[in-house]
Amino acid sequence: IVASGLGTAGACAVAIATGIALQALQGLVIGYFGANPIIVSIAGLGLILGIGTHITGGGEVYPASAASLAPLQARVGPFNMLIVVFAVGSVVAELLLSRTRFGRQLIAVGSSTRAAAASGIRLPVVVTATYAVAGCFCALAGILAAARFRYASLETGIGYDYDAFGSVLIG
User: Fold this and answer.
1) Do residues 15 and 141 lie in contact, with contact meaning Cβ atoms separated by under 8 Å?
2) Which helix (H) or strand (E) holds 76?
3) Tens of pLDDT along 40-83?
């Protein structure tokens, strides 16, 4: 609704920028203040759902025209756009992890935060950047889900959030 006058590309850019900003904010709280990631994620979810409900009035958001979703519903050869974005995202993530300094630092932080800190890695910066990257991928997933269903709703994916939290806690 906020970006509806910007067209499909503009609305997608706003969605991605918002996803990055909101997740980076959570990463800042976790990285710089040492807050519990699960608690911050649950609080962030509640905040995002509250703001989203306020903006949309709790209803669905439909595109101005079905034709505006065509690029997001296109096929590249035998594959639909969901598969193409997943494949490209996987390659980008793999290259980011295996070929960049940030990727090596992220792996070190994930393996042992104490060892990473002892080796001079600035944990808050890596954590914040990691959350920002995750926000970008989450926004892409939301955009593609909205394109697939031809509307956006806060009800889409209800229930998966706590399954994800449970999986993290168990894992």
Assistant:
1) no
2) strand 75-76
3) 988 998 898 888 888 888 878 777 666 777 777 788 889 988 89
Burial of residue 65 (CB within 10 Å: 0-12, 13-18, 19+) is exposed
Residues 6 or more apart whose CB falls under 8 angstroms from that of 97 comprise: 103, 106, 107
Distance CA 149, CA 156 (A): 9
Mean residue pLDDT across the chain? 87
The pTM for the full model equals 0.85
Place of tokens 């997943």: 86
What sections of the chain are H helices per DSSP? 7-33, 37-56, 81-99, 101-111, 113-118, 123-149, 160-170
d(Cα 139, Cα 20) in Å, to the nearest integer? 8
The neighbour count for residue 130, using CB atoms within 10 Å, is 20
What pLDDT shows up at residue 82?
85
CA dist., res. 6 & res. 80, Å (int): 25
